[in-house]
Amino acid sequence: MADNAPIELQVITPEGAVLRAQVDELTAPSVDGDFGVLAGHRPLIAALRTGIVTYRQGAEQQQVAVGPGFVEVANDRALVLTSAFCKAEDVDLTVARQELIEADDALQSFGGEPGGPEHGVLIRRERWAAVRLELGGDPPPPTINTINEFETLPHGNYEVEESSETEQH
User: Fold this and answer.
1) Which domains are delineated in the chain?
2) pLDDT digits over 70-100, tens only?
3) Under 8 Å CB-to-CB from 107, ≥6 apart: which residues?
């Protein structure tokens, strides 16, 4: 793999492909922190948190917002699977500010189980509004969240329960 070979960046949402570009480098927001990808990067699969993906094409740098999801990097290709996507030019700062206020108010008055599915929906709403504001150039003040987005997603219990019955011979 050549050092100057481009990386094929694809972003896929439930609605389909929303971005396809040949890029020189990219940075993405994983649940463990941001990471960068250059041509020749080792294969990697990472869980994404809501945040900003930055990529460079020559001297031009672009940014897009993504929701939680996954990224696979292999063979100079980065495939981002995400629940939400937004370009900077599509951000309506007034709408995003209002959505952040509403999500913050809902989180403040939330009386359910912290970390449960309903709580997770509110956290994801808050983070999506905040990241769009950041992308639009008007980031909100930082907040401290002790619950990871992925911890609140509904999922099945894959543990096998052992039977308390013993076999009779």
Assistant:
1) 7-88 (2.60.15.10), 91-152 (no CATH)
2) 999 999 999 999 999 999 999 999 999 999 9
3) 119, 122, 123, 126
